[in-house]
Amino acid sequence: YPSGNLAIIVVREKKRLICIVQEDKPNNAEIQAVFKSNGRNTCYYPNGAVWINMNIQGGQYLDQAGSRVRRWTWPNSIMSSGPHVPLSPIFISLNRHVGVRILGRDKITVSFLAMGQQAKFNVGTKVQVSDLGRLPPPARLGEDELLLLAFRVRILRLFDRLRGCLNFPSNEQWDKMKPPAYLITQTLKILQLCTTSDISDELRSSITAIVNA
Known about the structure:
Blueprint: E1 8-13, E2 16-22, E3 31-36, E4 41-44, E5 50-54, E6 58-62, E7 68-73, E8 90-93, E9 98-104, E10 107-114, E11 117-122, H1 129-132, H2 143-167, H3 181-196, H4 201-212
Antiparallel strand pairs: 1-2, 2-3, 3-4, 4-5, 5-6, 6-7, 8-9, 9-10, 10-11
Helix pairs in contact: 2-3, 2-4, 3-4
């Protein structure tokens, strides 16, 4: 950076290359993005929340609250379920000097601009179509992870009801108000994960009771 702080690091880990973007701080700089040559890439908001998450099959764009804004799959990806959604070009600024452009799996660029000079890093991943058929299926969530997700949604719904009570204390109908759309969506996703995960019927019933309580 113009301040002299390190902005972008490229390191080798065994057979993989890793590109790391840091914030403009002299000490304890937070990581703003990580791009790996195996296709696993993550960009973070300034507050540390995940902004964009990508793997060899596709990616998703999240808001700062953790709700998914959009998702996509790369061409020729082998997905376990769900429709194939094409990517719409994405341009984001990690900070005033570093931007990320995503046009395709092999067309992901990190751009650094400062003092009238620019550097570009191609951090995309090239994958042979013949290799895609050998990709392992996406890992399924374990029992503990599903329970954590269920309790997270339950807590968020309780906070939403608490806000409704505080904002409208005299409204006798506040407890009948529906939760926000993103919480309903997350609830449905967790219930869908329960049907596709290898868990006991007892645990599946417990999770259903938690998110619907």
